[in-house]
Structure formats: C-alpha cells, structure tokens
Amino acid sequence: MIADRMKLIDASGIRKVFDLAAKLTAPLNLSIGQPDFDVPEPVKEAAIQAIRDGQNRYTQTQGIGELRQRIADQLTLQFGVTDPAVLITSGASGALLLLMMTTVNPGDEVVIGDPYFVMYKHLVNLVGGKPVFVDTYPDFRLTAERIEPHITDRTRMLVLNSPCNPSGVVLARQEIDDLLGLARRHDLLVASDEIYDAFCYDVPYASAFGSYENTILLKGFSKTWAMTGWRLGYAAGPAEIVQAMAMLQQYSFVCAPSMVQWAGLAALETDMSEAVADYRGRRDLIYDALKNDFETVRPEGAFYIFPKAPGGRAEAFVAEAIRRNVLIIPGNVFSERDTHFRISYAAGRETIERGAEVLCTLAREMGA
C-alpha cells in the first residue's frame, strides 16, 4: 500500500549510523552533523518568555512579521536587495522541500555537485525530477566549466551549497559569479543552501544571493545557534516563488514553531564568533591528524572533512571503523561514489584526537 514515489528514496545512511550508535558503548562519535555546544542562553530565555507570553498558537503561514522584517533588513544591508520576499520555514530542510515541490516539474533536471548534502538527491526524485550529478572530485569545487556539459533543454535548477556538507569547501566570489553567469545564460533557477554561512575559516563568506534575480536563498538557525531540534529556517528570493512556497506551507507545515520564531529574533542578535573560532581550531586539529595517512582536502568551512578511504574502499573502511567504536559516515550517503567517508568534527577535542588515532591506525593496516 506504499506509494511508488517512496521507492525512489531510501533510509538515510546517517540515520542508520545513529541507530547503530545507540547499540555501542561510549562510541567515539564523529558522525553527527550538529554543533556540540548548546543553544545560547539569551535564545533559550527568549523562547521561554515567548511561551509565558502566550506565543503558543499558529502564526501567519509566512512567519511573524517581526522576524521576516528583521531578516529582510539584514539581507538589504548585506546585499542591497530592496524589500526581499521572506518565508519563515520549519528548518532549511523544510524550505528545500517546499522549493522543490513548488518549482520542479516531473522530468525537470536539477544539477547537483557530487558530493552533495544527502537530501538533495532524494527530494528531487520525490517530486519527479531528475538529479544530474556533476563530479567534483578530487578537489570538490563546483565550477561553471564542470557544469556546462551537463546543461540540457530540460535543466531547471542549479543547487549550490557553500560552505559545503560534506566536503567543507567554500566557493570563492569569482567561482560563484561564474556559476551565476552560467545560470543566467541558461535561465536557470539557483537554489543556494547557505546554512553553514557563519562557519568560514580561511576565505570570506560569499553568497549567491543578490547577484542574480532567479536565486532562492535557503538559510536557517540550526547550525550557527545549535537550534537543530527547534526547526527554524527561511527562504528569500523572487516574490512569485516565495509566495507559492508559502501557499504550499499552508497545506503542509502550516507554520514554523511559534515560540521558536520569537527566539529567532534573539538569535540574530547573539554573537557566535567565539564558537566559530573554536571550530576553526578543531578543523586544524582533525586535518593535521589525518593529512599524513589520508588523501584529503583541507576544509575551509562547515564542520566536516571528507577523506578518501584506503584504496578507495569506503564501505569496508567505515564498517571496520565502526567495529572499533568510531562512528563515521560512508561516502555513498553523499555521493554516487563510495570512495570517501565523512567525519564531523563537531565533537570534543579528546574525541577528535582519539578517533583520528584509530582511523589513522586502521588506514595504515588497510593500506599495507
């Protein structure tokens, strides 16, 4: 009795690792893609106060006016976009689902850099589109030159993710401008997932928003303020698309959690630079620990690193790592290849050091 569309998706490999983690005793967990710090106290207090003030009912489908205006003002200040249309969503993932359902017709092609965030492929399939993967190995840089041969008369959308999950690559300003130029020439919609925008360590954060009118910006509060379970995100872009997404949200999510929207106002006023600096140090720690035993790209942002498994045998390597009580994610969750694996360094320094030691020892054994 299950709908045929469900055959086009499968259980997330990340969820499978989470389920396995529950069966292990004190594993060295380098798999979880969420900050290990807690929600800042001012944000918690704002949510509590909102609950006490009775902000517990449905809000407008598009979100409370105060938060939408605050985000719109920020986007205007950053990018010079006048009065951008903003929709508050149940996480950036909710925004992504609404966008795909609103803009992708059956048979439309959606161009995605490989490796990619796990949801992209499955959501495109779910709405009847066709994911078109652009191989970015070994440097993981999504460039206009790599994409151009994949453009057809069925291409509808280009998905960007910078800083990138799982590679940690941050696209430079010129790279983004080249990609937007390509999108303009082919009249493509650009979906720019910038959920990790605060986590840029070596190069300035460069956004795709504001330079090309057919860009939908997808952002959220889960990573920067550790609000993963609070489910708060937003989309901004062409009014026609944002309004259609809002109409669909009315018949699906209804609205983002009301008290969390009020807490979002406090989050936008909360400086997280110390946390970002700490994660920069963890990035250095994991990269320095792995670089002599693995072929890997030094991540520039987010909180992931995506090394190549010994001999390109990721499934076997990950299985053995888990047997040794180190939780990592196999690369085929994020890619059409199964040659790499993802580490999240959103973990304590001792966990990072001990986990890296086990992985390097295993790499030497399997590479021998």
Your description of this structure?
The chain is globular. The protein has 12 helices and 12 strands. The protein has 2 domains: 4-39 and 272-367, Aspartate Aminotransferase, domain 1 (Alpha-Beta Complex), CATH 3.90.1150; 57-268, Type I PLP-dependent aspartate aminotransferase-like (Major domain) (Aspartate Aminotransferase, domain 2, 3-Layer(aba) Sandwich). The mean pLDDT is 95. The strands form 3 sheets. It has a 7-stranded mixed sheet, sandwiched between helices. Strands 9-12-11 form a 3-stranded antiparallel sheet. The longest helix has 19 residues, at 349-367. It has helices at 13-21, 41-52, 65-79, 91-103, 118-126, 144-147, 173-186, 239-250, 258-268, 273-290, 314-323, 349-367; strands at residues 28-29, 85-89, 109-114, 130-135, 155-161, 189-193, 215-220, 233-237, 304-305, 326-327, 329-330, 341-344. It is an alpha/beta fold and 368 residues long.
